[in-house]
Amino acid sequence: MGLLEDIRELDLFGQMITAQPEGLVIVSDSAAQPLIEQELRLAADARQGMLPLVTTPADAPALASASMIVVASLDAEAALHREVVAAAPGGTRVLRLWRDLYVNNVANLSATGRPGAAELFREMPPVDNAELAALRCYAVVCTPRSGSTMLVDMMRQLGSCGTPREHLRHGVLSLVEHTDFDFQHWMHAVLANGATSNGVFGTKIISNFLSRAEKLHRRGHNVLPPAALAPRVIRLRRRDRVAQALSQYVAMESRVFFERDQAKREQRARFLAGLEYDFDALNYVYQTALNTEGRVDSILEGFSGPRMGLDYEDLLENPTAELTRVLEFLDLEVPKGFVAPQPTTAKLDDSKILALHERFSRDLADRKRPSRPKSAPTPGPYQAADEDIVDYQYLRLPGVPFRWRGPAPQSFEAGRYFCTLGAAQTLGRFCSRPFATLVSRSVEIPVLNLGYSGAGPRFYLDHRPIFGLVNSAAFAIVQVMSGRSEGNSLMRCDSGRNLVTWLPTGEECFTEQAFRYLLEDYDHQTVNRVVAETRANWLGHMIQLLDAIAVPTILLWISEREPKYEPQLGGKLYELLGAFPHLVDDEMMEELSPHADATVMAVSSRGVPHKLVSRTTGLPTTVRYPNGEYRGEDRSYPSPEMHEDAAAALLPVVRQMVS
Length: 659
Hints:
Layout: H1 3-7, H2 12-19, E1 24-28, H3 33-47, E2 53-55, H4 60-65, E3 68-72, H5 77-87, E4 93-96, H6 97-112, H7 129-134, E5 136-142, H8 148-158, E6 165-166, H9 170-178, H10 183-194, E7 200-206, H11 207-218, H12 226-229, E8 232-237, H13 241-254, H14 262-274, H15 279-300, E9 307-311, H16 312-317, H17 319-329, H18 351-366, H19 383-386, E10 395-397, E11 400-404, E12 418-422, H20 424-427, H21 435-443, E13 447-451, H22 457-461, H23 465-470, E14 476-479, E15 491-492, E16 499-502, E17 507-510, H24 511-521, H25 524-548, E18 553-559, H26 573-577, H27 586-592, E19 598-603, E20 610-611, E21 623-624, E22 630-631, E23 633-634, H28 640-658
Parallel strand pairs: 1-2, 1-3, 3-4, 5-7, 5-8, 6-7, 8-9, 12-13, 12-14, 14-18, 18-19
Antiparallel strand pairs: 10-11, 15-16, 16-17, 20-23, 21-22
Helix pairs in contact: 2-3, 6-10, 9-11, 11-15, 13-14, 13-15, 13-18, 21-28
């Protein structure tokens, strides 16, 4: 999600419209102004409210007439605030959109459970650091649909366990990632406003926010590690993983997470009435839930504070006993004759869910991972053509489409393997030991090779089940894939690979052919525009891909060329696209690299051309290419020596990462 989409969950702009004082002026820089105006207009239309004036720091008359000023910037709020304070008349209050209004909003949410428009423009009282240091802080850490809403609701009712709610969400994490937001100031406000009078603060951290915070911290963003927010952890789990997966699937598909009113109950009932059994869909959610649990445990391995385990089923069966354990864990007094309060949320169950649970559990037990006969390789990309040269050992993975190069790790236990994503270079066409295998053998960690023929970043983004496996790995190596595996205004790329529809005629063809048509039929201005569109789409999708991976990432450039090159429009295809990775240059790499934990350059032409040899006879052989030509040597894919060079470049970074 984008920054403003994430912020919308707290309705910040809607509350600004509702509570704005007379004479409010919003001052923004040029980058933020159109976005701020858009959000305010949407909020004003929804609430039939008046739009405040949005202007720039140079508008002296507006500053002079303002009763209150709010400065808004995406990347320089502090600097803009100083500039406007210096320019505004003395006595005019100048607030900051993120540091003041957003934090006021979150602080009120922390205290009351709901945003407060009336508190939006308040002056935040100074934080007493000594009081903060004395707080007893804890976090309920869990995956979705594990009973956390019920647990923290009961804990809030006790009145002595703080007011545990979700604080660490996409809004604050997006601010940290995209602006100069002061995370520590936000954290202090949350702590100061969320503690009960006995000095106890509680929060709830769901796995996806935990992973994102850990990733941002690892990449050097201004965010404290999640453990700093709460030295004590209550690790909530659900023993019945099938029930958890079913609950999550139904909630996601029906968009009903809690039956808070009759309309939601009816919406969920309608969904269940039409729900048909789909093993693959349920199994994807189930496997993802298992992997996510492992990812949470992996992050908490570095956590040294006190930790308590609690199972949802035990809480349901004996809430008084489990909440007594919680109070004792937090060093809080257990009242004499203590009885747990009744939860305000009901467990969602019915006969349809129970029937699905029984059927899925049975099918899950019956289904075994298919084995591939050694004498007959399973068909997959290139296998039929390359059979005499290399056996790719293709196999299927549970809950994931397509066939992938084997062998796969014996276990998908979180953190016990690493994975590689990329195109045929990562797959290792014509190579019995691609860089993934070489790295795996060197560090003695199994690898899951998710390289796929012609893949671009959209290929992975369009097949989300893959991320269940990727985000349970110890780390991921992501190849810089070809820029040609993208769409543009003249080519539709539905596959996320190097196959497109040439829109002027509707012909389906490889991207190389489509770019030939572009060079033959269009002027230089159009060619430049289409190349720019393709590059922008590729860069956006590569960034999305890296940001979707929660585990540490290594961005790998494997090529015969350095990134710097300039597309030539002289009519020759290779001069336009450049050598692999096609269309990608140094400026794109500069923008992409910060989204990975490390970038490795493996520039080599050693062993090119690669002489093809039969794996059965050891003699020279040939392979038939799609154009019908037989060749005895290959210049299109990295040679075995290039894979060795890539592995050698990767190993120092990998060893540092796994240490």
